[in-house]
Amino acid sequence: MITLLLIICNILLIPLLLIGVINKVKALLQTRVGAPILQPFYDMVKFIGKGETISETASWVFVWSPRIGLAIAIMAAVLVPWSGLLLPASWVPATNLLLVLYLLSMSKFLGMLAAMDTGSAFGGLGASREATITVLVEPALLIGLGTLAVGAGSMDLATIYSQPIHPIVAALIGAALLIAALAELSRMPVDDPTTHLELTMVHEAMILENSGRNLAQVEYAVALRSCIYFGLAAQTLCRVWPGFLALSPWLHYLAGLGGLFLIGIAVAAAEGVLVKLNWRRVPNFLILATVFSLCAALIAVTR
Amino acid sequence: MDYSWLDILAASAALLGVWMCGVIRIRTLLAGLALQVAAMAGITLYIGLVTHVTHFLILAVVVLLVKAIAIPWYLAWAAKQLETREDRGVTVAPTLTMIIGLAILATCYFGASFIAVPSLGNVGAAGMAAALVLLGMLLMIGRRLAISQVIGFLMMENGIFLYGLTQTPGMPMLVEMGVIFDVLVGVLVSGLVIFRLNRSFEHIDVTQFRGLRH
Q1: How would DSSP label each residue in chain A?
Q2: Does B99 touch chain A if contact means CB atoms closer than 8 Å?
Q3: Nearest neighbour of B102 by CB, restricted to A283, A284, A295
Q4: Which of A152, A164, A225, B100 is the most exposed place for a label (fewest CB within 10 A)?
């Protein structure tokens, strides 16, 4: 019962709060006052109330894919142990890492379909760039999570994260997951989320045509995916301290959320300091994630 | 953790070498090189503290001053003098070079027992030393600018230094100092040669040296 309440709190409260904290920290670092921390909640209410402008060449794909994408994101957010919450034992087989990765890829695929459906040039541009980044980052995710799976002897994420992980392997895979998270969520240095120049956009070009309720669904799905990716990275990095698993369930959950918000603050600080990479230099940055994952795999294999 | 400082520093040096294979900017390469040499100096310091032999401590300080501070600073100054040479292209893509570097590191780690001296040294550190030598070679052959090839050569020198440090009971102080100052002089002379090349060709791209001047 408590688990269900916490899961609902995880889905309804934490994602938008994380986005609000990231934006507020970035504003403070740029010596601005910035929007209030709860601004994403107000934005959601505003978007849902607004009318939509849909391109004449768009079809049902454009209308339905944000809805299905949001549903998939909610499902993934429930299944992935990104907050340190212990799932009921009967749900554990559903947290298979391949299932989770495919769910996240599917939501990205639907986003790309919707972007190309509008017939505008920016949608195609954003979709192709997003696809390139996803392809470059996929090996890092698979090898990293696969290494953890081999170490834990099971492909279920819930089982993997309930067992101790070797500290060096945890540090390397945490770093790889963090870089992969920055790439998948289109944050700096891969893509500037606040850019207003369409030529430099990756993710924003994909969602440029959405307005009103569609935009609310897309933004909420992005917030949920931020929680999933940053939360997984935070959980893996927390495993560097062997005593982390010995904490009581409540402390585990709160420490997991604390780690998530700390990573959010670090990402905000990085966004204030870094510049967006030249598009031709993006693979050089993303290969670091694959190298970290491969290193961790080698270390795990020799143990 | 059950690793000694020697293992951690040697592994960090090798990982820095792998990272440097994928770096494009000269100043970042030099920063990586300086960190690598600092790791070598740290290992020398550790060995000196563990075996209570003072010549290792003096060697650590000299290595830090000459190879970690003086040489990278000189090369950075040279790169600035040559002007827009801070961003460059490579013959093999940097991403692929990094993966090849990782494969080299793995091979050297698993084959370390062939080249180590088990009675004296650390088998792991010998593997890392061999990896550093091979990674330096990879850097040298995969890069286009002459200054990056000097950096590759310096990484090879790091590897040889690490091997000598961990697999032998130590060389006489005079020999070590001689080697370090030979490296310093070598780098200074190669800097002079690079300036000369730049004056003749207007660039230091080694793949273009065979063509006729435009």
Answers
A1: -HHHHHHHHHHHTHHHHHHHHHHHHHHHHTT---S-TTHHHHHHHHHHHS-----TT--HHHHHHHHHHHHHHHHHHHHS--SSPPPPGGGGGGGBHHHHHHHHHHHHHHHHHHHHHT--HHHHHHHHHHHHHHHHHHHHHHHHHHHHHHHHT-SBHHHHTTS---HHHHHHHHHHHHHHHHHHTT-TTT--TT---GGG-SHHHHTTT--THHHHHHHHHHHHHHHHHHHHHHHHHHTTSGGGGGS-HHHHHHHHHHHHHHHHHHHHHHHHH--PPPGGGHHHHHHHHHHHHHHHHHHHHT-
A2: yes
A3: A295
A4: A164
| Residue A65 distance to chain B (closest CA, Å) | 34
* Domain count for chain B: 1
Q: Which domain holds residue A28?
A: 2-301
Minimum CA–CA partner of A240 in chain B: B1
Domain that holds residue B65: 5-208
B134 domain-assigned: yes
Chain A positions in Cβ-Cβ contact with residue B24 (cut-off 8 Å): 281, 284
pLDDT in tens, chain B (214 residues): 567 888 889 999 999 999 999 888 888 999 999 999 999 999 999 989 988 888 899 999 999 999 999 999 999 998 888 875 555 667 778 888 899 999 999 999 988 888 887 776 678 889 999 999 999 999 988 888 888 889 999 999 999 999 988 888 878 888 889 999 999 999 999 999 988 888 888 777 777 777 766 5
Would an 8 Å CB–CB cutoff place B15 in contact with chain A? yes
pTM for the model stands at: 0.88
